[in-house]
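Hey all, quick one. A colleague (J.T.) asked me to put the KG4 job into the tracker so the inputs and the structure tokens live in one place instead of scattered across chat threads. No bug as far as I know, just bookkeeping. Sequence used:
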Amino acid sequence: MNKVADIYILGIESSCDDTSISVCRNNEVLSNITASQKIHSKYGGVVPELASRAHQENIVPVYDEALKEAGVTLEQINAIAYTHGPGLLGSLLVGCSFAKSLSIASKKPLLAINHMEAHILAHTAKNNPDGNPTYPYLNLTVSGGHTQLVKVKSATEFELIGESIDDAAGEAFDKGAKTLGLPYPGGPHIDKTAKKGDPLKYTFPIPKIGEYEFSFSGIKTSLLYFLQKESKKNENFITENLEDICASYQHGIVSALLKKVEYTADKLMLDNICVSGGVSANSYLNESLRKLGVKKGWNVFIPPLSLCTDNGAMIALAGYQKYLCNSFSTIDAAPKSRWKPGVSL
Ligand code: KG4
Ligand code: ZN
């Protein structure tokens, strides 16, 4: 019997502040190299102009390293996948132009990838600790720019069920952290600090909102008012209670996320429950989701850390799925700053 030929996909991610390039052989990650931009931490958030400049500096060395680590040459690559949106336009343009140049020079086909679909398709990677979910599944995508509940019907069919009407969960972490004087990006700092705190010490309420929607702008304001009030009574309130504040604030965000996951899973009768995106690296979210999964009888899937935050491998994995459907894109497609999952190019 003839062996089916392996497919090598190059994945290029540059939608925000990480320049990341990966080579995948089918659904196996051979390399996943990321240059994170430290420059933004002193501004307390991503500065778009600086981000696109840093992508320009990083993209060639990251590309060289990704091929080298995979032990693959450009000649062996079958197709070039790149993030076409959503994201910061100046950042997207760098990855998109690089992908198009490579495609022209090497005569390899292009695959324009939706970043939010790619976060979801991180679940298709070979050797993920939780294995690969079967379709259909419910995916909670939680990143710095988006919070979405998506019914994933197949590797190419996505139905957006609901999303945040204002801030994303990652933004709530980052803005809350900034208020507490923690460095950017604040999500990992809150996660770490919260480990020693009491999640039930303070209450940060989440507003009641439409059936499948989220809202996170209120919680950061309630944190701000709470800190202003307490700091008037004790000017050292934040430093003396930082662990409990972080744990309670994190508890508020995670409870809001899981409440909607549970409601949606029940309503849509789905029991394969997945989480992805940068906030899926959060240890309290992971623990709480696994506990809830046991109670509900769900199969829970959490990607490995390297596939949670922005990375080139998820772009290559999404590219592999598009390659299998011959869903190639053309050189004239311009990147999109907004692009919902499930909507065609
Ligand atoms: O998916 P991602 O890398 O980029 C976007 O597409 O936005 O997500 C970045 C977000 C940031 O808001 C960051 O603070 C958050 O993911 N994040 C975390 C953790 N690690 C990253 N939030 C909470 N806990 C973490 N451990
Ligand atoms: Zn992302």
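Adding what we noticed when we looked at it: Residues 20 and 34 are 4 Å apart (CA to CA). The pocket of KG4 (ligand 1) is lined by residues 16, 143-145, 170, 173-174, 185-188, 191, 277-279, 281-282, 309-310 (CB under 6 Å).
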